[in-house]
Every structure is written in C-alpha cells, then in structure tokens.
Write the structure tokens for this entry.
Amino acid sequence: MLLDHEAVLREAYDRGIQIIRLWFADINGQIKGFAIPARELEEAFEQGMGFDGSSIEGFARIHESDLMAHPDPATFAVFPENGGYSAARMFCDLKTPDHQPYPGDPRYVLRRNLQKAADMGFSMFVGPELEYFCFKDDKYPEILDHSGYFDASINETGTVLRKKTIFALEAMGIPVEYSHHEVAPSQHELDLRFCEALQMAERCLTYRFIVKEVARAAGFHATFMPKPIFGVNGSGMHTHQSLFKSERNAFFDPQGKYNLSATARCYLAGLLKYVPEMTAVLNQTVNSYKRLVPGYEAPAYICWGQMNRSALIRVPRIRVGKEKSTRLELRSPDPAANPYLAFSVMLSAGLKGIEEGLAPPEPVEEDIYHLSERERNELGIRTLPGSLYEAVKLTENSELVKNALGVHVFEKFIENKLIEWDEYRMQVTDYEIQKYLPVL
C-alpha cells in the first residue's frame, strides 16, 4: 500500500522512527543523500530540505548549486533495526529553490519518460536480474566458493549472505522472487518481482545498497562490478520489460507468433535499432565492455530469439494462463548502470519503435558465437560497441538518447564518460607490464 504524507508521519511516530534518510541518485546511479531527525519530517514534506548539489556527480555548477530534496511518501520504508535505533528511507524528487523540477535529477528523467508512455496509453513494467560477486575484501577479487550455477548449499557463506539479504529486502517491502548461486565462482543473483518502472528503479538502488551492507556487516565485500575476474562470466542486469494498458499486457496476442502483439514487435524492433547508441547508458563503465564479449553468456551481437541465450533480446516462453508475463528480455545491461537512466533509454527506444511502426528482423535461434563473420553479415547481425569510447561516441550523436535524458543529463553524462575513458587509457596495466616489459 502506498502511503501519503499523513500516513508516513503516523507510521514514523507509531514505530518510533528516529532517523529518516533522504535518498537520491547521482548521474552514475550511486545513492546520495543525508539524514534528518524524524521531528524534521513534516517540514521536509511541506517545504523540502535544501542542500548543496555542486559536489554531486553530474549535478549543478557552483553558481546554481542550491537544490531542494522533496521526499516521496510512497517510497517510505523502514530499515531492519540495527545498532539500537530505528531508521527509514525515502527517495526524493529534486527541485530548484523556485519549486521547478531539477533537470539533472535522474528520477525526474524517468518520470518524464514514463509520462510520455502514459500519454500513449502505456505503463512500463520491468523485472531486472542483478548479478553480483562476493569477495573476501575490496582489495583483490578473492573468491569465497567454487560453486556453480544453481549449486545448493545451506551453510556456505554466499548462501547465508543471500538469506540475510532476502530477509532485509522483504522487511523493507521489496519482494524477492528467486535467489541462487550464479555460473561463476562466488557469483550470486536475487531476482526482484516485476513492478512499475519507477518503483523498480528504486528497488534496484535499495537492493544494491542492502547486498553491500549485508556483506560488509559479515566482513566481506559485495560488488556489482560487471567483470571483476578474467576468464569467467561477468555480472549482468538482464531486464525483462513489458508495456501495460490498464490491467492488460499490451505485449500479449494469442494469435501472434511467440504470442507477441504488434505493439510488442514494434517495441522489440525499436530496441534492436537503437541499442548501439544507448549502450553507453546501459553499460556505463570501462569494465562493462570486458563482459560484452563472446563466450560468457553475455550478448555481443544484435539479434533476437526465443530459446537463444546468445541473442541480445530473448522472448521467454509463457505458460497458459500467465499472459501478463509476456515480455522481452534485454540481456546487455549490467548492474553498474543507473536504473533511472537505463529504464528511460530502453523505454524511449521501444516507444520510438512503436511510433515508427518498425518491424523486427527474423529471429535467430543458432548459437551466434559459433557463426562466422560472413554468416553473421548474411543474417544482418550487427555488433554492440566494443569499448566505452566507441559506445560514448555513438551516444554523443544520438537524438533518441538526448531526448530521453534531457540536455542537462545528456551533456553531463557524455562529459563524465569521456573523462573516465581518458583516465583509463592513460593507465599502464599489469597486462602491459607482463607482456611487454620482458621483451621490449
């Protein structure tokens, strides 16, 4: 049940909440925020809480740094009690001092795109699968187990941490559908039950926070770095998505191939057409492109299929009576992405496909990794960008991404990623020392 201002005030009082954490995300999707005593909550609802945004990544310049955080009562959730005091969190809408939405707020970006979908009669639902690794510490990726996909254990460290994470998330009102060990050693996944996109973006941010806090409390380090270990699978954020019209899944058609409606096929075609130019948003780190290589269950080639897990987009089979679960699974995003921005560009590409009446190519069910370059070319299969720089240069010229993110976030994002690329390309890595120093 979504709460309003008065209900939150009553709940905070009744449960003895002492601290309220006001959260928002920077341009990279990292949680930022500050805490207020519960007695300040009423004023926060009425007027917002001011803060200096000039030091937040991708936010305001020094001369326009004053921002107001307005907590959204619908996001109120109480943390599992820790340290003898009770605390809750709320996500905030950021506004300027004259009460206008702040264009650099990633939450506002997603709100804007969801409103465009609503104007077309749609709401977006998503179900992302965020994978992560758990290591001994944050100094070196030292694994805690040698288990593999779906391996069962009761007392293994990763199993215990997953259980604690589930309890914490469920206590905060975030339902978990599955949890299991992933393919790589020390790699895990918890799947959140699908819901509306704005709510899911904030569940993703909370999920990443709780996973890391649970690991830290046990003396370990959890990371959503896409590819921390060479030679094994990286961590993805496969994103299941669908559009609804009221209570009806607009992607379902009992007469359509794969039970996909014309709307779903246009949306699918939009994702396929525009994915190269939005990849920098879905895979926003230098390290992301170490994952997007053939052979490790991460897509490198732009095509779609039903059973084909080497394809960029998969159409999962649905069970009879489960028509609401009709969806498309985009497999390229990784869990380091800013979910507000990632969902925004996915939705924008899909809606563009609907507006343009695009038709998808034929599905590909062969293992694409085993096709030759000539065979891929004959099938019209393109390749995702191979580096952050290549991806950013495509994004830089994208009207779709610029419109989706808005000029402020778009320009700050490009600037931020080019700085990251420059920092990376000037590094001298261990690989170079080992390969070149002895022989050159």
About this structure: The radius of gyration is 22 Å. The chain has two domains: 5-102, 111-431. The chain has 13 helices and 18 strands. The mean pLDDT is 91.
